[in-house]
Amino acid sequence: MIQSVHIENFKSVVDLTLDLGTFNVLIGENGCGKSNILEAIAFGAAACADKLDREFMGSRGIRLTNPEFMFSAFKDITPSSSIIVSFKINEREYIFDLINESNTSKKWIKKVVISLAEQLLPHRSITLNETEINFLIEILEKSTLNKNQSTFPAPPTPPQEPIYNESSTIAQLLRSIQDQKSSQDDISSYFVYTPEEHSLRRTEDTMQIYPLGINGEGLFQYLKEVSQYKQDNTIFEEIKIILSLLDWFEDFSIPEDLMNNEYGLRIKDKYLNEDLHHFGINSTNEGFLFILFYATLFISDQTPTFFAIDNIEASFNPKLCTKLIKSLVQLAKKHNKQVIVTTHNPAVLDGLDLEDESQRLFVVRRNREGHTRAERIEHKAERTMPLSEIWTSGFIGGLPNNF
Question: Which residues contact 291 (CB under 8 A, 6 or more apart)?
Answer without folding.
Answer: 242, 243, 245, 246, 324
